[in-house]
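Risk mitigation, structural track. In case the binding assays with adenosine-5'-triphosphate fail to produce interpretable data, a predicted complex structure has been prepared as a fallback.
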Amino acid sequence: MNIRDFAKLLRTRWITVCVTTLAVVLGAVLYTLLTTPLYQASTRLFVSASSGGASVSDLYQGNLFSQQRVLSYAELLGGGTVAQRTIDKLKLDTTADALEKRIKATVKPNTVLIDVSVLDESPVRARDIANALSDEFVALVGELETTTPGAQADSRVVVEQRASVPTKPLVPNPVRNIGIGLGLGVLLGVGLAVLRDMLDNTIKSQQTLEEIAGSSVVGYIPLDKDIRKVPALSFVSDNSGTAEAFRKLRTNLQFLAVDNPPRVIVVTSSSPAEGKSTTAINIALALAEAEHNVVLVDGDMRRPSLDKYLDLVGSVGFSTVLSGTASLAEVLQKTEFPRLTVLTAGSIPPNPSELLGSLAARKVLDELRAQFDFVVVDSSPLLAVTDGAVLAATADGALIVARFGKTKRDHLAHAVENLNSVGASVLGAVMTMMPARGGSSYSYHYSYGGSSGDGNRDQRKEPANFHSADAETNRPDVNTTADATSPRHLTERKDGDASPVKRSLD
Ligand SMILES: Nc1ncnc2c1ncn2[C@@H]1O[C@H](COP(=O)(O)OP(=O)(O)OP(=O)(O)O)[C@@H](O)[C@H]1O
Ligand SMILES: [Mg+2]
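Fallback model:
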């Protein structure tokens, strides 16, 4: 991982870093609030030798003697005798062991100074203990260093600086604690982000998608919240990033095999909710925008959605034709979009895989191929059922859809295997729901008038290109409308009168 990858990772996983840092800082604040404050009072002791002479050599010897002495004195200061004497003097309710732990004696190198500090919950008691302890130590040294009673002691300790009442507690130190929390939090957050990235098994890059799909990426569809409300883009008036992405996909499709471009295209993916149906609808619309007659077929006979997404009749369609109940011409539905006809899935059969793999299904697709410039087939997820693979084998090939950050690498690999095992060719891969720039470091950006997936949306809600059912076809020999002889149940469709089919029947 180079620095750019690392920066990308941080931009993508900034929430992990921020949440972890915040949690650790909050922990540090909590720790600070729960810590009992301890005050520190300090004294300074000065050690001198009782030198007999006043020559330079005597003074030097005396000083050397004192420097050697201070090390032993520091040990004594932290020992039990002085602690016990202090306890006795101040009548403290503690033990010598406990007090010892709160005493610290530090010797300044090459000096005859000893700093003594005492920690206590009470600032006043800390001062009293420090002063009493120093006084007791001075007395103890006097006793220890006097070899003959009445004689002058060899060494002398003076309390050079007495303790005063500390104003601020030594612990907790909020600034230090929060600073440490911040540093640890950032480190932990970055570590977690890297770990999550390493464990992330989803597809997020062109390279991964191409490697697994075994074909090139022909489209990047941005994440577009508006498409959830209105799945079909109005290409005539929509210049949003999403519409432009589908136009690029259309162009790429036409370049796939210049001499013999695929005309019957199955849109499939490994798992549910990866954007197959939405992508199929808009590929069909993009092709229709380029003056092609397109039929969109709902080959997902388990969870059909084109009828709902396009507000069409759902009760009759592909399965109706396959069961022989109606002819193809009777169930094709003209849409409000020019040059786009739809064959919905029809009522859900008990044996979709069998139906889709039948000779009848092949005949239907052949008929559609003959009638239209492009046949775009929506399908079921490949890991769940074989329907998509069966359809793809009949068609010119499949576009395999992967949802950014959701589709798992192994799932996609499995799906591609399923396609290969039935001899279906993967025409290309499409990455859907790519986060907009800023939302993710991995995102791609499209713009054509608009800046991202959310461009010209108002126009989409009321398409300017509304056409009546029997208008708009460049092929007079093609019957793309549901005619008046359609089966009666076609008229038993959704209650709304707004449907083009209903209008055409009326
Ligand atoms: N580009 C997009 N931006 C934002 N949301 C999207 C996009 N494409 C699809 N969606 C939303 O994702 C959800 C699933 O989409 P869709 O129904 O097209 O997926 P699917 O793969 O056909 O699902 P299923 O397997 O259930 O048939 C829908 O709510 C749809 O509106
Ligand atoms: Mg679908």
